[in-house]
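Follow-up to my post from last week.
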Amino acid sequence: MRSLIGAVIWKEVREIRRDPVTVSFAIILPLLMLYLFGSALSLDVKDATLAVYDLDKSPASRALIDAFPHSGYFRRVHDIRAETEIAQLLDRGNARLVLVIPPDFSEKLARGQTVGVQTLADGSFPPTAMVVAGYAAAIVQNYNLEQLRKAVSAAGHGAAHLSPIDVDSRVWFNAALKSVNYIVPGLLGVILMAFPPLLTTLAVVREKETGSVQQIFVSPIRPYQFIAGKMIPYAVIAFMEMLMILAAGVWWFQIPFRGSLPLFLGATTLYVFCTVSLGLLISSVTRSQLVAMLLALLATLMPSFLFSGFLFPIFTMPAMLQMYTYLFPARYFIEIVRGIMMKGIGLEMLWPQFLMLVIYTATVFTATTLLFRKKVV
Amino acid sequence: MINNARLAALVRKEMIQFLRARFMLALILYMYTGEVLMCTFAMSFDVRNLPTVFTDFDRSAESRLLAERFRSSGYFSIEHMTTRDPEMARLLNRGEALAVIVVPPEFSRRLAEGSPASVQLLLDGSNANTAAVAQGYAQRIVLDYALERIRASAAGPVPLPVEHRPRVWYNSELRYAYFMVLSMIALAGMMVGVITAAAGIVREKESGTIEQMMVTPVTPAEMIAAKMMPTLTIGLLALVPSLLIAAWIGVPIRGSLALFFLFSAVFLVSSMGIGILIATVAETMQQALLISFLVLFPILFLSGTVVPLESMPLGLQYLAELSPLRHYMDAILGIFFKGVGLEMLWHRVAAMAVIGVALLAGGILQLRRRMR
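User reply:
Got it. Predicted complex:
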């Protein structure tokens, strides 16, 4: 019994070893993804670059301008002298925000008229543009508040309504608001969903395509033994990929790991089996490797990227799509990983996600065995 | 080099083979339609209805007014009210709330006195971008509230001193959805082009039928041209439903559709060039598919389809010039959004053509060497 599973595992290991493409694929691609997402995709907005076009050059305009670097969100890098510079700065990405103060700024302010101040944000990447525009709006409002307080109290209307209200904000779990801190844990969910299922699918469908699966059918091996034998080598590869990503994340990207390592390893083992069984499920409904690959792409990689909360928050999606995200295990796993790594919480908080992953894996594995059995008989 | 009658026969064979794989056709169609539609709705970075806890230690008319402000902004959705610390921590830890707004006990008394008051905001930073956007919104809501109190206190109407007129250069959140639609259409073309071309040739290698081809008078150029026909046809036809979806969502179509199809054809041919080159290297179907994936991923990432190229390191930006997808993206954005024509975009189509010809020449040479 055992030895039959062992025989399938051994056969698979030899096939993997013989094929350098598969091995390098399993090692290179996760690291490449980690590099591109960790380094080339930056959503950070600390110290956004600011260019100022001050046409007024008065003490009043300087007070507003100074409020930007004082807020801690902006770094003033350039003073614009001619209007043509604005487009250049934004096009080259040298400034994330341009602040334009009109020539009559101090004059209108002194007369008590409303004066318009324009900000231009580089919108080529909306996530960061929205943050930058939001900070700018808050800084201008704050300036208004100060101006009005002075004006109203000078007019002697008493102090009754003049309280400034400030927002004392604290960010939990990621105080520096660094994007790698949440991208790398999320990437773990995406990568483990992308490659191990693909490799397992191809491992089974390959045998169907070449016809060698017929030999399996006539052998005394039982479906679950064949499936387990196909699953284990790829689960081991996936587990090693996970360790690689974790090591790179903690040592190279310096992301914090606050929770329990054993719990984390338990969760990834569960997830790895889940994704690998999903790959086997796909293989049981297809006969061609090309179709298997496209199906794996659409059923595992795309949803784990889009509908898992990896980059795009789930709560802003339309209700229908929010329900849809529950269909993919990446969502549960990413919640677990971020919970353990960023929040440092344990099973007492994360048990619903764990439970869902267990149910999911069991369902997929059973479905795979059942579907495979039909073809054996 | 190419004999028309032979080519026609080969194209017929390829067409029959391609159309017989019904399930694959369905998947390709889904990539061009369903996937495009879903991404458009799912991929938003905006913050709306953020699940929020409102912790009111003050229980005054003022604090209730502030809660109302947060609620009616649409950015925050107040789903829990509690003043118990462990409950707040539990909600944040379990991810049931992503923000906590705390109104301290002395809030209304301080406002009445005219002394500085503060509101505390706790944010879940496990999506740093969401937290940063929410922080900006919260500050604005509180400041607006403070401002209005001051303006109401004066005898007459007080004008706002400075009015903020924000403009977003290039792109607004709405246009990001439009951008994503085009980006997903381009991605679909790229994936279908590379994968079907690679698989089409490797299949013949694996089953040994390529040896039979070698003993016929068929030339490598004919074989490759015939292999490309079905994907090119289907790839262009599938653009029609994609365009309907784009139009339905409201993507502006300012330029010429004929030009769009021309560009798409050149783009598909050059992506198939990548696939063919992969097929000459790979020995088995598994290798071909894995190499395709290995090559596709960086190309997709580096072509400005999700993340703008400008925000990447300079070395990667130069590398991206080698990707047909990068030129295609730039061209279709120009056609759809700016309505520009060939006079502005000729260098993009030229670049795609050069890349495509180079890849195909490489593929044909490799194949010819093998066929000898």
